[in-house]
Specification:
This protein is α/β, with parallel strands linked by helices. The protein has 2 domains: 119 residues, Ribulose 1,5 Bisphosphate Carboxylase/Oxygenase (2-Layer Sandwich); 83 residues, 3-Layer(aba) Sandwich (Rossmann fold). It has 8 helices and 10 strands. The strands form 3 sheets. It has a 5-stranded mixed β-sheet, with helices on one face. Strands 5-4-6 form a 3-stranded parallel β-sheet, sandwiched between helices. A two-stranded antiparallel sheet has the order 3-7. The longest helix is centred in the last third of the chain and has 17 residues. The radius of gyration is 20 Å and the shape is globular. The termini are far apart.
Amino acid sequence: MAKLTKRQKAIAEKVDIDKTYSIAEGFDLLKELPQSKFTESVDVSINLGVDPRKSDQVIRGATVLPNGTGKSVRVAVFTQGANADAAKEAGADVVGFEDLAEEVKQGNMDFDVVIASPDAMRIVGQLGQILGPRGLMPNPKVGTVTPNVAEAVKNAKSGQVRYRTDRAGIIHCRIGNVDFDSAKLEENLVALMGALNKAKPATAKGVFFKKVSVSTTMGPGLAVDHSSVKF
């Protein structure tokens, strides 16, 4: 059996893996655990009562968290004309059209989110094999293909998160940093759960939110009682 590090021992002493914590307790405990040398993110895993094998029960979308994610996001926008000016004014880091496509083809992709106006998709569509595997391909389902690129840029910069059920019907999402106040982390979690609740498929039966766990980048997952969250 592998020997536990000092950090792992300290965590094991504080965490009861069989306990379901209140949301406030869970976030407070995450903040009390020994931290790494970098600022760890706070992440949530939400088991949903859906059948991911059925296409109409795959949940995908985006929502803006009220307190952001704590992550600085660089945004690239494919558009032209007045939309290009609006995107720049909204805070886009890179704006272009054919010229931006050439940069992408050359491997110059210093950005985290890609937004495109509908007229730019004829160009962006040719970049699918480059952007797709990196999770950067714009998609109307998450609001990154839109005529209102300025609003999309503001959302991305304001802490918008994307979510999608994995093969087990679980949503994994960043909801902040460990240096956030517990109350702000809870507000972000409630906002995410609210967005998921609105996206609940009509064909999903039974309990929708089956289990909610929170964790830091390097820490253990803590089960939290989500029954107090009302919609």
